[in-house]
Amino acid sequence: MSTLSRDQIRAMMAEVLVAQGKQMPGDDQANLEEIGFRSLDFSELALRVEDEIDEELNFDAPQLRQIATVSDVLDFLEQLQAA
Amino acid sequence: MVARGFDGAWEQLADLPLPAAAAVAVLDNLQAVRAVWSAARDGGELLVASRTRLTSDLRDELRAAGLAVVDLGPDDDPSGGLGDRVDERLGDRVGERVSVAEATAPRPPSSGRVWLLTSGSTGRPKRVAHTLDSLTTVTGSQPPRTWLCPYAHGAYAWWQVVTLSLRHPGQDVLFIEPDELDSWPARALEVGVTAVSGTPTFWRQALYRDPDAVAALPLAQITLGGEPVDQAILTRLSELFPSARVSWIYASSEAGASIAVHDGRAGFPQEWLGRTGAGHATLSVVDGELLIESARRGQGVDAVLHTGDRVEVVGGRVLITGRIASDEINVGGAKASAAAVRDVLLAHPSVVWAAVRGRRAPIVGRIVTADVVLSDETTVAELTAWCSERLPEYAVPRRLRVLDQIPIKESLKSDV
To answer: Domains plus CATH for chain A?
Structure first.
């Protein structure tokens, strides 16, 4: 299956934020709570990735851990694609 | 009666001698009405369905239930149907191959029994027993009309139109096939159709594709059923045909035709709940589900049928909003109603059709997604903003897909 690069996922994350009237921070260590990126946004981003690669992701595959920063989101989705 | 390849009266239909208990797999409406006419005349036991509907498994099941499966296929069909033998007596139309697969568990036929298949949208299709009498729900004298019947062969709504025509002189029918759904208004105008029955999806599709062609029809009766009927489509049709009676019917193979509303409004009056007496079904609501006790129900169906349909009482009207099993979308513990989201989308002036469902997602479990068909260049961002103003955040569709055309199944429903 095709996979999206970290930069591509970051760009999609920015789209989700902009659609909610928010800004994508320049720093990947930015705290999700502070930038207003919430559970629903995260879910939407995951589905955008699914649609883009035209493949169902196994959301249970990566070990669920705390996702607190932009970097955590990107790690998680990269990991999902590799699972 | 007008069907592809036929224009005449019932009694002019070519003979189709059938086994005494037969499930007839048909290619078109002409084959279907020939089967009906033969069974009505001979008192046989009958099930009619399109060939595509009768899968191999289903055919085996019907044969085990005592029905011979008669396959009216084209003679160039490489599969040759499932016939154990080809019966030359039955095939009197050019290009028609008739095969008969005998019942594997023969039994004496039940004279006059008509079998219907449920839609099977929530599982395997079930057989429901009726008779021509129980399927004939229109009584009393009727003004002469020519009906358009777009329904799938052998569906409950199809039988409603068929029995209306069989039992009431002056009720003519133009049958259209699935491949005529794009062009039916021109054909209806040519034949002189004055009454049309269809699902809300059928009507939305027709009005989206060619509203002028639909508006040109001299309709005196418009009927909707088979899916939740919302106010937007009723209003649109009432405005387009101000002198027509616009009705919606709640009917199913199991419940029979149980609710008929003619005031052009969605839902039915709240005072109908609990009403008893001859001539109408007894309706009740338990835990948000519509319960129906109807004399027109199928044989063997529970006297009080749990319909599986969710209802809400709003402003003195009981609104049927959708199926309980598929309506609730659990978004991280918050419960969104697919029907409520769909209503909000349909209330947008640019949305001509909408389907809402839950989609599996990380963290929250499911999120709300929607497919829409638009009449203009409205953007997804504008639709999202429209929903955000009217719905809680968890119910706002996060994935909104704009389709080019309204999807429709053979059942004339969207079922998506």
So the answer is: 6-82 (1.10.1200.10)
Interface residue A46 vs chain B (CB under 8 A) = yes
Taking residues B391-414, report their average pLDDT: 90
A13 CB neighbours in chain B (<8 A) are none
CA distances from B314 to B221, B250, B281, B348 (A): 27, 18, 21, 20
How near does any CA of chain A get to the CA of B400, in Å? 11
Structure tokens at B112: 């006059």
pTM for the model stands at 0.83
Q: What is the DSSP string of B306-335?
A: EEEEEEEEETTEEEEEEEHHHHEEEETTEE
B359 contacts on A by Cβ (under 8 Å): 47
Nearest to B217 by CA among B236, B235, B241: B241
A61-81: pLDDT as tens digits: 556 567 889 999 999 899 888
ipTM, 2 decimals?
A: 0.86
From the CA of A46, how many Å to the nearest CA of chain B? 7
Question: In A, which residues are within 8 Å of B381 by CB distance?
Answer: 19
Structure tokens at A72: 């955590």
For residues B2 and B383, what is the distance between their CA atoms, to the nearest angstrom?
43
